[in-house]
Amino acid sequence: xxxxxxxxxxxxxxxxxxxxxxxxxxxxxxxxxxxxxxxxxxxxxxxxxxxxxxxxxxxxxxxxxxxxxxxxxxxxxxxxxxxxxxxxxxxxxxxxxxxxxxxxxxxxxxxxxxxxxxxxxxxxxxxxxxxxxxxxxxxxxxxxxxxxxxxxxxxxxxxxxxxxxxxxxxxxxxxxxx
Length: 178
Fold this sequence. Notes:
Order of helices and strands: HEEEEEEHEEE
Low-confidence stretches: 1-14
Structural class: mainly beta
Oligomer: single chain
Radius of gyration: 18 Å
Largest sheet: 5 strands, mixed, barrel
Number of domains: 1
Number of helices: 2
Mean pLDDT: 85
Number of strands: 9
Helix content: under 10%
């Protein structure tokens, strides 16, 4: 990071940063618990894909352009404080200070597809999930397939109605609790 980025982050250090992070349902990965400290490679999810309860609006960030392994190609990374950075896919703006809205996505494979692997560190404050209406269709093998529909809905963990399906686990992070 350059001196301007470091100075900008230092100015924000005294602000408390709580933010939601989506966590996928892949089998074989650790379960996250309230109170756990986590360091995750992260990308940014735009607000139009989220229930309003999970959106952090107008988060002040410093956007940095980072070279990739391919000549002429680059990635964009947003930094909020020394504990939060995220890959911005399809970024069309310039480098420098700006504000973004949305939440983080824990992407375990980010380092496989990108030269840079931004990370976020924090302590888990609470759990929730994103649910959708679930249209279940029986399969020939006795199970069923689920076709989510309708808008995504914020649901407290453990309170998922039987007519809904969970598409993402979510954790709220305190990124200043180090």
